[in-house]
Design a protein that fits this description.
By secondary structure, the chain is mostly helical. About 60% of the residues lie in helices and about 5% in strands.
Amino acid sequence: SFEKSFSSCVGFLKIHAPWEVLCREAEFMKLKMPTFKKYKVSHGSSIVEKVNMFVQKVTATLQPKVGENRDVILILSLQILCEEWASYSIFYKYQPIGLIRKYFGEKVGLYFAWLGVYTQMLIPAAIVGVIVFLYGCVTVEDNIPSMEVCDERNNITMCPICDRVCSYWKLVTACGTARASHLFDNAATVFFAIFMALWATMFMEHWKRRQMRLNYIWDLTSFEDAEVSHEENVKLTCRDRMPAYMTIIVMMICVTLAIVFGVVLYRVSIMTALHMSSTPSFRTNIRATVKTTAAIINLIIIIIMDEVYGAIARWLTIMEVPKTDKSFEERLIFKTFILKFANAFTPIVYLAFFRGRIIGRPGKYIYVMGSYRMEECAHAGCLMELCIQLCITMLGKQLIQNNLFEIGVPKLKKMLRQRKIDKKHQEELDKTLHRHEKDHFLGPFVGLNPEYMEMIIQFGMVTLFVASFPLAPLFALLNNIIEIRLDAKKFVTELRRPIAVRAKDIGIWYTLLRGLSKVAVIVNAFVISFTSDFIPRLVYQYMYSPDGTLHGFVNHTLSYFNVSHFQPGTEPTESMHLGYKVEVCRYKDYRDPPWSDTPYEFSRQFWAILAARLAFVIVFQNVVMLMSDFVDWLIPDIPKDISIQIHNERNLIVELFMKQEQGKKYRNTIGDPSPQPLRSPVTRSIPGPQYSSVTCSNRMERL
């Protein structure tokens, strides 16, 4: 029946589905019916069962109060979700995943189940990351390289960091940066990188087991996505799609290079301008100012370009005209992921692997656009700047793009909608409108892709460069605790109820997660090897140190430069800035001194360290990959009790068919052709609804 509503443009159509239609659709969807025969499934040895019982008792207070009366739950589901899910005061409790699935459908239920597992697995990662950070804080006073940098008795004069306006400087002025770098560049960094690689594997395995358990409880083990195409267009060939793919690749490369180059020019120009300033306050903490402002600029660009990339990805996908909705969604996700991933991680990749490595040397620097000298890393390396960039990007995206936009934008839209309606008219509508009519004023449901994308980028921040930022899991954990309740409140109170969609997994997102976890091993191997000073310290300690310690390491990393070899017009204008004439300055590199037979060429130490770095990358990558594969092999994808349940139910089905065949033979023998109903149902002893393969057509006989 059709019902007119508050607007001539909006109407509501009430649809009634007869029981026969529901049974037929249930047969098509292969829905299973509950059964009643009981049998017990053992969860393992008595010790395992006792441990499980103890864990259940401990976590009993963390379970949501959903209740057991099925009819009451169905009637009051929205109210229960508001109280036991969409509330910040119960952030410490588990989510009522079963009720979420009943109210919103399996696809939404799987998203929140995955988000809950991810957040739960971040707890051990955050704890270990904090321990690694505290280890750096405790050992900073005993760190020999930073002690040597801070020792004024060394009296090391460093070469200028820019042409003309920058003068010579004392290494001791980098004391603070050296001490801060040790917080993130220490012996525990390697251990944490290995731990996070194994953590990612454990997370993926834990989710597979959790997903399998949910599939069994929700009757999705035999579910097949029989999607019917809503598009009648002819499927395009690879040649037809090539313009779209070429467009996305060329655009990504151009935009990425433009952003990186623009930030490089900003860093170089602002550093030169600050050195030229006559104001003393501007000339103090120049490096910190440039680092922080550049990171904030990168964050603003990332937030803006994320919206642009999302629109472009959708446009490119529409150009391809995919034949099915699923194909459209997967292609859109893949393109959006590629663009947003490149957008978020390009500045980080530049800091980690390119900055400070293509600068040349004193007297023969590399310039861009004629007069801009490529920027150098601080004496302690680029790891500290990489950490600052990661911290600002991660916190900024979480606070501004994720939480503020998700809270502020919907409220702003709601306020604008209310301003268009007269207050008296609004009061009349509130009194006369039905609940389904009021819900029409809520925001439309746009899908789960933005929610997944937000978490996938965060997962990349947590795993890819975790060797340089051990506090990333902690920040992700704190964000996700808020994110779960924020999304819950949004789904319950601010969005229209989405159409329930059945799904047995999270789709292409699992493939992206698994790919990121593999790439993270390689990236962290290169970060430890090339970005940090871990390998140079090891090589010096075991090959060049006279006493097997790190004493003399700082001097070993510095090369000599004769100031008379400066190119004309690049020497410092204030050569007496330190109060004395400088004849030889130092710079961080492994090159032969000017008085050698091969002045300023790479030294033997450089090649030894390079070989050690490459060897470490190969060994680290293969060992960690092997350990990850072993963990993957060790943990079964299907929980043991679920596997036994499925096996027993298959045996039950065989038993039912055998009894049916025996009944047919008996009826044929006595001449009775009337069929008899099957009456050997089974009930599982684990929580959740119990199902067998008997479907809707047998319901009346079984009840």
